[in-house]
C-alpha cells in the first residue's frame, strides 16, 4: 500500500509544471509561427540588449569624471534588474495587453501565457512566439530608462534610481507604449507614425531626463569647474556598440525577416553615417576641428532621428532626416545648458528629446506609401510628440519629487566630492 501511494505521489509531482518537462513530448509548433522571422527577431533582441549593456554603459561612463565612472554602470545594471522584474509582473501587460485607449489590461500580468502558449503570437507580431515579442519590447523599455540615467549622472543615489525605475516603467513608459503602438491606443487610432521608438523611447527618455535633471538639481561646481570626460575611448567603443545594436532596434521593429526590415536597416546606416559627417562639418565651421566625441554624437543623433521613420521612408528621406537630426541636436547640445542653466549631465534632452521630436515630425514628411503603407500626418505626429513629451515630463517630475520626500534623490555634498564610485559602491575604476 505504501509503495502504491509513493508511486502516485511521485507521478503527481512530475506532472507539476515545474518538473513536467522531462520525459514529456515537446508540443507541436504553434500555428502561424515563422521560423525565419523568429530567428531574425531573436538576433534583433540580443542586439538591442547589447545596446544597454555594455553599449550605453561604456558610452556614458567614458564621458564622466573618473571618480564616477563605475557609478553609471552600477545604476544601469540595477535598472536592468528592476525593469526586467516589473516588465514581467505588470509592465508588458499594461503596454501590450488589450484594455482601453489609454492603458492595457491585466491579461498578461506575471507574463501569463507566454511560455508554452500554442496560440498565435501577439497581434502586432503574429508570426513570432509572443515570448520573443515580450523580450524584444523589454529590451526597448530597458534602454529607454538607461538613457535617462545620463541626465542625473554624478549625483543621484542608486536607491532613488531603482525606485524611480519601477514607478516610471508602470506610470510613464507602459502607458505611452500602449498609446502609440497598441492598435487600441489613442495615438495609434489617430494614425501616429513611430516605427521603432522615436516617440516611445527617445522623446520619453529625453523629457524624463529633463525632469530628472531639474528635480535633482545641478552638480556641485556646475558651470564653474571643468567636467571633462575621463576616457573617450570607452565612449567611442560604446557608440560603436550602440550603432551596431541599432540595426536590431530599427530593422527588428518590422517583426519579420522581410524587405521592410532590410529597408529599415539600410535607412538606419544612411542616417547614422550622414549624422556623423554633418556633426563633424558643424564643428569644423564653428572651431576648425572635428572631434571624435562630436562625430560619435552626430552618428547617435542621426540614429535617433531616423528611428521613427526607418520603416516608412526611402534613401532620400533617410539622408535628409539624418542630416536634420544632426544639425538640430548639434545646436541643442552646444547651447541648451548655457541658455537654460539646467545641468542635464550628458545632454539626454538635447540629444534624445530634441532628436526624437525632430524624427517624429519628419517621419510623415518623408514617409512613402510604397514602403510603409501610408504617409501619415504631420499634425498628428506633432500632437502625439508634444503630448508624449509633456506627459513624460510632468509625470516623471512628480514621481521624482515624491521619491525626494520619501528617501531623497541626491548623495551628500561630501559623497559627491569623493565620487559616487567609492561613496556609493566602495569601488574605483582603477
Keyword list:
Ammonium transporter fold, mainly alpha
Walk me through the structure:
The chain has 430 residues and is an all-alpha fold. It has a single domain (34-111, 121-425), classed as Orthogonal Bundle (Ammonium transporter fold). Helix content is 68%, strand content 0%. The chain is globular, with a radius of gyration of 22 Å.
Radius of gyration: 22 Å
Q: Residue ranges: pLDDT <50 for 5 or more in a row?
A: 1-29
Helical fraction equals 55-70%
**Main sheet properties:** none
* CATH class category: Mainly Alpha
Element order, helices and strands? HHHHHHHHHHHHHHHH
Could you tell me how far the N terminus lies from the C terminus, measured between alpha carbons in angstroms?
A: 67 Å
Which fold does the CATH topology refer to?
Ammonium transporter fold
Number of helices: 16
How many β-strand stretches? Answer: 0
Number of domains: 1
Overall mean confidence score, pLDDT: 92
Inertia-based shape: globular
Structural class, from helix and strand content?
mainly alpha
Q: Give the second-level CATH assignment, the architecture.
A: Orthogonal Bundle
List the helices and strands and how they pair.
Elements: H1 2-15, H2 35-63, H3 69-96, H4 130-148, H5 158-181, H6 186-190, H7 198-216, H8 232-251, H9 259-287, H10 292-306, H11 315-340, H12 348-366, H13 369-372, H14 378-406, H15 413-418, H16 420-425
Helix pairs in contact: 2-3, 2-4, 2-8, 3-4, 3-5, 4-7, 5-7, 5-14, 7-12, 7-14, 8-9, 8-10, 9-10, 9-11, 10-11, 10-12, 11-12, 12-14
Please sum up the structure shown.
By secondary structure, the chain is mostly helical. The protein has helices spanning 2-15, 35-63, 69-96, 130-148, 158-181, 186-190, 198-216, 232-251, 259-287, 292-306, 315-340, 348-366, 369-372, 378-406, 413-418, 420-425.
Amino acid at each position: 500500500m505504501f509503495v502504491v501511494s509513493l508511486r502516485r505521489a511521485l507521478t503527481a509531482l512530475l506532472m507539476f509544471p515545474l518538473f513536467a518537462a522531462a520525459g514529456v513530448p515537446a508540443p507541436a509548433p504553434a500555428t502561424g509561427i515563422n521560423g525565419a522571422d523568429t530567428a531574425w527577431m531573436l538576433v534583433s533582441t540580443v542586439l538591442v540588449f547589447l545596446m544597454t549593456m555594455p553599449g550605453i554603459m561604456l558610452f556614458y561612463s567614458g564621458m564622466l569624471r573618473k571618480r564616477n565612472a563605475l557609478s553609471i554602470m552600477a545604476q544601469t545594471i540595477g535598472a536592468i534588474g528592476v525593469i526586467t522584474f516589473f516588465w514581467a509582473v505588470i509592465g508588458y501587460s499594461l503596454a501590450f495587453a488589450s484594455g482601453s485607449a489609454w492603458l492595457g489590461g491585466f491579461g498578461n500580468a506575471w507574463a501569463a501565457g507566454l511560455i508554452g502558449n500554442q496560440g498565435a503570437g501577439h497581434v502586432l507580431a503574429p508570426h513570432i512566439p509572443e515570448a520573443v515579442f515580450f523580450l524584444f519590447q523589454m529590451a526597448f523599455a530597458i534602454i529607454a530608462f538607461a538613457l535617462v540615467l545620463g541626465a542625473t549622472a554624478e549625483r543621484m543615489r542608486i536607491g532613488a534610481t531603482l525606485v524611480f525605475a519601477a514607478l516610471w516603467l508602470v506610470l510613464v513608459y507602459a502607458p505611452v507604449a500602449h498609446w502609440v503602438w497598441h492598435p487600441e491606443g489613442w495615438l495609434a487610432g489617430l494614425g501616429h507614425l513611430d516605427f521603432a521608438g522615436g516617440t516611445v523611447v527617445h522623446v520619453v527618455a529625453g523629457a524624463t531626463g529633463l525632469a530628472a535633471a531639474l528635480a535633482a538639481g545641478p552638480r556641485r561646481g556646475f558651470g564653474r569647474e571643468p567636467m571633462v570626460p575621463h576616457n573617450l575611448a570607452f565612449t567611442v567603443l560604446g557608440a560603436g556598440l550602440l550603432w551596431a545594436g541599432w540595426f536590431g532596434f530599427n530593422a527588428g521593429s518590422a517583426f519579420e525577416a522581410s524587405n521592410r526590415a532590410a529597408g529599415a536597416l539600410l535607412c538606419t546606416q544612411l542616417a547614422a553615417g550622414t549624422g556623423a559627417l554633418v556633426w563633424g562639418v558643424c564643428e569644423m565651421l564653428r572651431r576648425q576641428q572635428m572631434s571624435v566625441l562630436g562625430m560619435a554624437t552626430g552618428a547617435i543623433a542621426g540614429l535617433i532621428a531616423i528611428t521613427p521613420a526607418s520603416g516608412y521612408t526611402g534613401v532620400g528621406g533617410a539622408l535628409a532626416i539624418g542630416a536634420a537630426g544632426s544639425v538640430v541636436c548639434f545646436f541643442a547640445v552646444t547651447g541648451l545648458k548655457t541658455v537654460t542653466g539646467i545641468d542635464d549631465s550628458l545632454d539626454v534632452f538635447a540629444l534624445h528629446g530634441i532628436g526624437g521630436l525632430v524624427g517624429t515630425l519628419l517621419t510623415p514628411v518623408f514617409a512613402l506609401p510604397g514602403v510603409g503603407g501610408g504617409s501619415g500626418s504631420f499634425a498628428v505626429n506633432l500632437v502625439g510628440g508634444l503630448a508624449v513629451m509633456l506627459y513624460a515630463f510632468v509625470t516623471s517630475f512628480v514621481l521624482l519629487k515624491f521619491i525626494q520626500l520619501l528617501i531623497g534623490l541626491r548623495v551628500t555634498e561630501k559623497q559627491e566630492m569623493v565620487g559616487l564610485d567609492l561613496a556609493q559602491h566602495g569601488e574605483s575604476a582603477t
